[in-house]
From TrEMBL:
Name of this chain's protein: Dihydrofolate reductase
Naturally occurring in which organism (per UniProt): Micromonospora chaiyaphumensis
Record domain Bacterial bifunctional deaminase-reductase C-terminal: where: 3-184
Gene Ontology BP annotations: riboflavin biosynthetic process
Gene3D superfamilies hit by this protein: Dihydrofolate Reductase, subunit A
Pfam families referenced in this protein's UniProt entry, alphabetically: RibD_C
Transmembrane parts of this sequence: none
GO molecular function terms noted in the UniProt entry: 5-amino-6-(5-phosphoribosylamino)uracil reductase activity
Top-level lineage group: Bacteria
Amino acid sequence: MRKLVYYVASTLDGFIAAPDGSYDFLPLEPEVAAYLAAEWPQTFPTFTHAQFGIASPPAGRFDALLMGRATYDPALKIGVTSPYAHLKQYVFSRSLPPSDDPQVEIVAGDPVAFVRELKAQPGGDIWLCGGGQLAGQLLDEVDELVVKLNPVVVGRGIPLVDRGFEPARFTLAGTRPFDTGVVVLRYTAGAR
C-alpha cells in the first residue's frame, strides 16, 4: 500500500509559516539545498529543477502530492497552475473551480476518505505538502513525518498540525544534522 508522507519545513516552536502564510524566514542554505535536491528532488517545484541541478523528471518515491488551498495560492499568484508538474497534484479547496491543468485536481470532498482511496490504488507514495489544517485532518493517515527543523523561534503562525489536542505518537527513524543548525528528522507513525 502507498504511504502518505508529510514532508515540511518547521520552526523550533512548530510553525510552518507566518500568520500571513509566508515562509521566507525559513531560508534554504546551500548545504541543505544540495542534500534535499539529492535525497528529496521531487519536493522542489518543477520550475526550480534547473537551478538546483535536478534531473527532469526527478526520480523518487512520490507520484502524487496533496496540498491545501493556502499552500497552492503562492503559485497561482505568479501564474503557475501546476507548481509540481512532475507529480499528480491534488488541491483541497471548496472554493476553487475545477482545474484546466491535467496534472492538478481540485478536491472539495473529505480529505480522509480521499486519501484512503488514493492509498489503496497502485502507485508511488503520496507527499503531503501542506498546510497545517490539511495536516491536522490527515494526521491519522500519515505514515511518515519528515521535518526540516530550522533553528528559529517565531512565536506564532501556521502550526505544523492544526487540530485539537489529540496526541499522536511517531518513532524516530533518522536524523541528518547540518552545520547551519538545520536538522532533517524522519519519523514513522506509531501503532494504529
